[in-house]
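Design job #97: recover the sequence.
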């Protein structure tokens, strides 16, 4: 849910306010192998000259959530599509068999999550969300990565965000 709130903030800032990118995506990928670990990420498409600025804008958006907290409206805009999608999936035998029953012997939590996820999503409060943001959106642990074409990499590496220089992938 936090990833979707961050995505909404990024879209509002970089697409609506700044017009720097049309697309933004954010998601959480928890580790199956290492409980308690995972990655929360945000991705935007942009031109190489705007990469460093967008990196900073994403960091600023995450910092604003930890500083000011998410709003009830942001929570609802993030939650409602997820709840609708989950309700549809739980009514589909293909989803139940492939995503929940398959592999549940190795991961029994899948069966528990299938019966509790909807209730957990619907019961999530802004206070819960903001507590998670305080724990996981720490800028000191963020790792910006900028992927640019070879010919543009030297231009993008010249601009450095305030906190941590982005890693460049070519």
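Job complete. Output follows.
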């Amino acid at each position: 849910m936090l990833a979707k709130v961050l995505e909404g903030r990024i879209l509002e800032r970089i697409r609506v306010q700044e017009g720097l990118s049309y697309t933004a995506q954010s998601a959480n990928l928890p580790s199956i192998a290492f409980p308690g670990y995972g990655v929360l990420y945000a991705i935007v498409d942009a031109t190489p000259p705007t990469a460093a600025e967008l990196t900073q804008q994403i960091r600023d958006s995450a910092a604003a959530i930890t500083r000011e907290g998410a709003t009830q409206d942001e929570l609802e805009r993030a939650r409602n599509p997820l709840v609708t999608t989950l309700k549809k999936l739980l009514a589909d035998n293909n989803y139940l068999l492939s995503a929940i029953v398959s592999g549940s012997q190795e991961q029994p939590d899948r069966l528990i999550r299938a019966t509790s996820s909807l209730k957990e999503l619907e019961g999530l409060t802004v206070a819960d969300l903001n507590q998670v943001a305080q724990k996981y959106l720490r800028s000191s642990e963020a790792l910006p990565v900028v992927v640019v074409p070879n010919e543009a990499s030297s231009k993008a590496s010249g601009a450095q965000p305030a906190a941590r220089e982005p890693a460049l992938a070519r």
